[in-house]
Amino acid sequence: MRTPSIYSQDDPLTEALKPSENETEEQRRVRLQQETEARLVSERIDEDLRQERERMRKSRGDVKLLLLGQAESGKSTLQKQFQLMYKPHSLDQERVSWRTVIYFNVIRSIKHILSTLESWDDYIEGVDAGPTKYVPAVSSPSPGPSSPMMSPRTPNGISSRSNSPFTSTAAGKSSVASLRRRLSPLVAADTQLADKLSGGVAVSGSGKGNVFVRTGWQARTIENALGRRRQRPSVDVEKTEENFHDPLIEEIARMLEASKDDIRELWAHPTVKGLIAKRRMKLDEWAEFFLRHIPRIASAGYIPTTDDILHARIQTMGVSEHVFDVTIHGKSVSWHLFDVGGARGQRHSWVPYFDDANAIIFVAPISAFDQYLEEDPRTNRIDDSLQLFTQICSNPLLKSVHLVLFLNKTDLLRAKLDSGLKVKKYITSFGDRVNDYETIVQYFRAHFLQVHRKNNENRRVLYTHFTSVVDTKATQRIIGNVRDSIFRGYLQSAALV
Ligand SMILES: Nc1nc2c(ncn2[C@@H]2O[C@H](COP(=O)(O)OP(=O)(O)O)[C@@H](O)[C@H]2O)c(=O)[nH]1
Ligand SMILES: [Mg+2]
């Protein structure tokens, strides 16, 4: 018996699909099976198209929220807080893949400490040879022209023999040398880890030697590892993350466990502590967090906690979209959160998203008054944030967008002030104001408000929050607040339709 529905007189494939005159029973069975499969594929395509049309239709009423700000301002961390609040299970699914990033953060930090110590070794030798040698402050920016908005200052390397942070030079050097030797296999794994995370993609137009990930890297990290394992027929793989084992990551986990005491010793080393205290060694902000927790992170069977994930650092490439269903007053609306790459070379990719954005959260790290852009070491970070904020406020495409400003990293600002840092040293226009937290945050806030006021044709409101987006409880309260204010605007515009 034939199944006529699939054939048509007009269909050019009719001839090809028509059964031959003397079809055997086996041929007929194969043909029918192929026809069924073809029909299923066709139905699946139709269903995908229908869903896409439905998504397009529905998304007209969705909220589109952009997270903007310079690199390292806290955009991706804020995105994780949204995820934690509105889709917590998805963060659980990713938990294992964050281990790769955290190991990478740890190894990069160790590498940085060791290479900084190496330059200080040279310094000590240079001092021994004669006192005139110039010593650059390690990883501090080179002096350059000062910038227009807040008259920031670029620091110079200061050289002084009496400033040497070394307590016991000979003993210190020999213990560092043996730590370096023992930690070298771990440090060497850095390149492989970087390759794994970026999938071998090198990106230009951003900071030096950084590793980027694209949307969905968490799932791909898991799939790649599973894919490799599936090729080995003797291994029975269950596709759950709990059973996910990447050979490279497992090897690094073993090395970390074996090096736990060495890492702890390096981190507690008086030379390292001295260099950090005298600001001759500048570690990434997250480095300190992970090195402090090394006994836990370097233990066998380590699974990242939510706090670890919030502190993990990996640069975003391009724009990644995250969708959440947000319910308020019994009404559920889809929110599309767009997290962007913030380095200068990445900013052009934001523009296509400006057209139909409803809201922006601009994230500006106010702890960064003593820091400079990695992609342009002459530009003070606060000044860059102000310039960027000016561009956002004055962009005609964004003139009716709901605007929220997060003055972020307030916890790090407090820590810097506690350690004796003076804003005036980096931002001359701060002048002789009192160097305390409250005065400083209000001073920075006033500058952002001024930018907004000068670029506010539509007389829109600017909602400002002082934040530390690694603090879950406080951030979730603020997210609730932002949600309410966006919804008020959303309902007003819906009422006008
Ligand atoms: N202590 C502290 N760290 C933060 C804060 N916001 C972000 N970070 C850390 O700063 C690093 C860069 O943040 P990220 O969200 O990746 O910045 P992005 O480049 O803007 O996406 C990460 O290691 C974060 O954990 C904050 O408010 N306080
Ligand atoms: Mg990011």
TrEMBL record:
Keywords associated with the record: GTP-binding, Magnesium, Metal-binding, Nucleotide-binding, Transducer
SUPFAM superfamilies: P-loop containing nucleoside triphosphate hydrolases, Transducin (alpha subunit), insertion domain
Annotated positions binding Mg(2+): 316
UniProt feature, compositional bias: Basic and acidic residues: 18-33
Ranges of biased composition (kind: Polar residues): 153-174
InterPro entries: Gprotein_alpha_su, GproteinA_insert, P-loop_NTPase
GO molecular function annotation: G protein-coupled receptor binding; G-protein beta/gamma-subunit complex binding; GTP binding; GTPase activity; metal ion binding
Protein's UniProt keywords contain Metal-binding: yes
Region of interest (Disordered), ranges: 1-33, 136-174
Pfam families named among the record's database cross-references: G-alpha
Residues that hold GTP according to the record: 310-316, 408-411
GO cellular component term, pick one: cytoplasm
Single GO BP term: adenylate cyclase-modulating G protein-coupled receptor signaling pathway
Protein name, as recorded: Guanine nucleotide-binding protein alpha-4 subunit
Organism the protein comes from: Tetrapyrgos nigripes
